[in-house]
Amino acid sequence: MAAPAMRRVSLRNLAAHKVRLVLTVLSVVLGTSFVAGSIIFTATISSAFDGIFDKVAVGVDTRLSPKDSQSTGIDESVVDQLNSRKAELGINRVVPRYSAPVTIAKADGTALQTGGAPSIGTAYLPQDQVLSPTESKLYPGGRAPVGTGEIVLNKSAADKAGLKVGSSTKLVVARGDSTPQTVKVVGLVDLPGDTSGYVNVQLQESVAKQELSDGSRAAYVEMSAVPGVSAQQLSDRVSSALGDDYKTQTGAQVRQEEKDNVNQFLDVFNYILLAFAAIGLIVGTFIIYNTFSMIIAQRVRELALLRAIGASRRQITRSVLLEAFVVGLFGGAIGLGIGIGLAAILKAVTSSTSGLPTASLQITPTAIISCMAVGIVVTMVSAYAPARRAAQVSPVEAMRESATDGASSLRMRTSIGALLAVIGIALVLVGTSGQGAKFAATVGGGALVLIFAVVFAAPALSRPFVGALGRVIGRPFGKIGQLARTNAVRNPRRTAATAFALTLGLMLVAVVGTFGSSLKGSIDDTISKELSADLVLATSDQGSLPTSVVNAANNTEGVASTVSFRIVAAKVGDETITGVSPKGDLSAVTPYEMIDGASKSIPADGMIISEKTAKAKGWKRGQVIRFVSFDGTPADVTISGIFQDSQILDPFQMGDDAYGKLVPAGFQSDRLILIKAADGVSVNALRDKLTAATKDFLTVQVNNRAEFVGQASSQIDQMLAVLYGMLGLALVIAVLGIVNTLALSVIERKREIGMLRAIGMARAQIRRTIYVESVLIAIFGAVLGVILGSVVGIAVVRTFKDLGITTAVLPYELIGITLVGAAVVGVLAALWPAVRAARTNPLEAISDV
């Protein structure tokens, strides 16, 4: 048979089965739309950032910054050196820059939230002193700040805060011993690169130098070159003059670095979005495979007739693959359109809720090609096995309409599934024998093998499970229930394939739910056992607090003791290590135990370390460790003791004097403050007093222990919400898969349904039969998924024990909701196929040969 004739047969077959075509295309669309949407959205945000960073450091020929990003800045002596060597190096102007995180109040007195965008204070520079021609361009009616108590604010932040020229507000610098200041807005500025949510508070330069640093350091230094000296030449000269202790860049290099940094962030965001697409495509692949398997099973006589009149096996395979190509092409094209809409929605949401900038949608060739390629390839790969299997059936055997799912085939699948299950369980057990990434990866490998075990063994499992479940659920429906159970177990491969999409989706839900429940349970247990503080002070955005907050807390009536935790990051040799310097009696707020060293007190120039840290680094009590700050300042710290490993305490707890050597006073800040109430003082009453005492600091939250635990749990819930959103896509596709399979099953059983209608079965009874059958399949898939997901979830949790997840907690409520939801899903998925079946004309169906 000629190839053109086979192509016409394939295309006419698609046209003749429009409903089947739509259902198959839909499963492709859901996956490919996220591929297109993620690529278009990240390209759009990247374009917006590129537009912003094209305006950064304009007019700057060379920027000098600390070599280490965690350094406190450039010392004033370096600025003096550059000024003294201007002529020698070819420098025209030297501009030191000062900056620090700040918070400003809105017109109503509450903190201005940025939605994740930076909120920083900088120095205001007059137009004749700046290097960028567009910087510090004031709106009419404003002026430069003079002295303390006056600020210039960027226009977008002022609009969001309800402030204008002449408005008074509160300003807090989030480090040092800064106290809340009342300031007046004297000018508004339109900044180049201003993004949604970004806040820039500009102070007079001399004020900024004192308020935003320790008075002797600049965050970085910008320079312009004299005529005849290029930016690269100036950068090279400055680098040679100052040595390797600093980073020198041209303005173009600064802009490129900013773009590279944001693109790294966008890559992570893109991976999250592509994970949505991957889950959708994985689940969709099984549905497409199942769909083509059923379609070919229904067309076996048609394909056999083609073979009988001369079509070769290769032509039959190509004919089915052509249909898959058309489905993939349509699915990819529609997915691209939906992806563009999805990107537009994401753009609108992020522009209103975060600090991300916006730009026009970037519909790139990469997005178009990727979307179309994924749709076509996934569909053709899914269709290949059914196509090849159909081509291998001999014409005579096919004409007999013999069952294609033989017992020998089922036995072989079950044997392979059992073998894979043993291997998967062994890998999971090996993974749970230790902690860390390698063991977690082993559990992941075992989970993957178990998924394939389910693929092979599920048909054999479906018969006894669905049969037993059918007797329970079908009993109230009498003969209709029996018929539904018979239909569900008649073709176990089809039942298992239909249920598998739901199995995979709910397995992932169970894994994520178990991990989240265990993480929250571990936090609850840890805080209950290891935290004896009554109240916790922290910022609403998990940022830093100025050291003056703890002073306000200490001056509050009813406070017995406070312990503030300050982050210490420094180098020991070539390694950067991070710990904490607690200020106050640590033992008063957490009952830690010493295992080497009698005293719990931390010497001012010493530290105590955890047992795990001592073993990992080989440190011992009495040993002197040299810490070096990122500015090169050394501090010799003596280990005074070793404490028992604690989930709530950092690897080391450093004394106050040692901390002061490593972190200058102007850069010190607190991450957390624990409060102990005096005897007889009500915790709730003290909380009210502390709230009033810290109100002017704008972002301080005062929580009791239960609220502190709840805050941590809410952050986990936010993370899980994103994951559940991803998994929701898989479940939507799984529901569509059940709809698809049931609809095709109705077509396959058309004559059977017609016969039932002819002997007196009512339309309502036909519908109930389909409903019950769908519920049986959905519950079977859900139970498999929940069992598999719970086992894998517990195993994953055990591999993260060293990271603080000490308790494995199954999400029983989620599991219960899932199983009930599966039954509901079964009914919903069966609505349309059931109506379609009930409308079957008995005479037409019986005469359909």
TrEMBL record:
It is a multi-pass membrane protein. It is found in: Cell membrane. It comes from the Bacteria. Its main location: membrane. Residues 275-395, 726-842 form the ABC3 transporter permease C-terminal domain. Keywords: Cell membrane, Membrane, Transmembrane, Transmembrane helix. Belongs to the ABC-4 integral membrane protein family. This is ABC transport system permease protein. It comes from Williamsia maris. The lineage of its organism: Bacteria, Bacillati, Actinomycetota, Actinomycetes, Mycobacteriales.
